[in-house]
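Feature request, filed as a ticket because there's no other form

It would be nice if the structure record came with a short human-readable summary line next to the tokens. Right now we just get the raw output. Example of a typical job, pasted below so the devs can see what we mean:
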Amino acid sequence: MAPKNKTPTDEEVDGYHHHHANSNSKNKNDDNVSVDSFDVQSTSGASAYSGAPSTFGGKDHSNSTNGDGSDSPAALVRTEDFAVRLLRVLAIVLLLAAAAAAGSMMYIFTSRAEQSSFERSFDEIASKILESFLEETTAKFWNARTLAAGLNGVMDSGSMNKTHLFTAAWEELSEEARLVSDVNAVSFAPFLFDEDELRGFREFTIDKTDGGIPTSGPNPICNYCGSQELINTNPDATIEIGGIGSVSCGAIYGSGQSGSVSRCEFVLEVTEDVCMCGPPSAEETVLPARNTIEGMWMVGDDGLAVDDTTSPPWNPVWLMAQDGESKSTFLYNQMSEPERRRVLNGLIKHKVPSFSEIFSREGAYYENYAKGSQGELVTSLAFPVFELDSDEDLAGSITLELYWRNFIPSNFPVDGDLVDVVISNTCGQEYTFRIDEANNELDLVGKGNLHDTKFSSYVKSTELEKYDDAVRLASGVSPPDEDLDQFCRYQFFVYPTQDLQDEYVTDEPLIFTIIVCTIFVFTTAVFFLYDFFVRRRQRLVMDRATRTGEIVSSLFPENVRARLYESNITKSGTTAKTDDDDHDDNNNKK
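Raw output as currently delivered:
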């Protein structure tokens, strides 16, 4: 009969344990594992167990407990493994959240800093440009007022009225206004309100010009070609004239035709052997000369000068100073031209200075008579000249032809070429310009408000009231607002461009954000790499522990294994306590 199984005593278990340990130590090269190694692994590497339940001897011990009621090693492994996974997920979430927060803050702060720099720079540029426009507007009105005061002085010194006003020093008198305001032409034209005034003015002009001169100037025509049928054929040839310098034949011919040459005999003498004359070619047009005896003129349908047939009031050019290749427009009735007529009618009605609407130097008048700068955008500044001792009786008007291209002669601010400038008036006109810093002038972009609508909210502008203040200051009176509303009142707008924004708003915020995020990504990668190696080591330990457990399960019954586990735990606790006591003793010795 087989002997009955009985529970071994503690002494038997300890002896058996000792004997089995010695036996395994002799054969450690067989499987490279031992009970002692199992003891170590089961105590120091509990967290290395995988989530799978451990089986010893073919039995599932995942839910078994030790004698004192504590969880088995497999259950502890599952618990600790869950905690480790939770901490791993939490660490990853925190790293990603930190990366997102740091990257967002970096992008927001750097973007705002760049945007702030862009807006601050634009504000400075726009403020300087708008101030320049207002200052130049005021200066041009004041230049016209100074010229009007000079004419009043001429009238007072010569006891003249508007139909008998003349000065040979008009060029000198108007020079400052032309230079400071940078205008091409400055003229005075009397206002003639009826036939009697027109007749008196015409008799005065004929008498003043010795019975009749070409309408192009106050002197008799001086044609060194000897005939109106002949023209200069080598205008680029030059003549050296003492006290004057080098002068082209074309310039001399033009001066003679304009009536601005007072010493015709001298001109004929110096040009006789140099300047050549001949009949015009088929493409050239010789404009018919008009004398003062023929009176005022206007441009006919054929583009040539014809007798003026308009109704009063009239405003014939009498005193003229101009530069460039323009022919004089002596006795040209400005009221026959729609653009000028509107501002002059307003001047008659309200007696305050104003700008005309914007118009282009195009058409027969500018092609044949007021030559030069064809196609340029200009505005006429009309300033009233009053009779002596009167603020109501108009003697005439001073007209300055202003070029928008060089409306601002002063230097523009740095990066001024990176904004759009829009000139607008209450006559419904808008034109967009860009600043040409190299030439210090405005380049026309086109008609209308053509700024980039993306930047509409950034607009800086002057107020209509500022323009009105310039008018009031220059006129010396305070016209009511309803009078000023009848004129073209001007506003100036400045918008930033994409080019200006690109100067300040760059890709740096995005680059910095990518760098910050890259740092966090690298940190996360290092964490993952570390976690990978730790888990791999744990798997190796767990594999060894599993094999050891299987060996123990095959060698010992279940009750013996339980006693072995309890004994191992007791030893581990004793060892830990001994280590703590040794640590305390060492501290006491120190």
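Something like this underneath would help us a lot:
Confidence is low (pLDDT under 50) at residues 1-14, 16-70.
The two ends are 67 Å apart (CA to CA).
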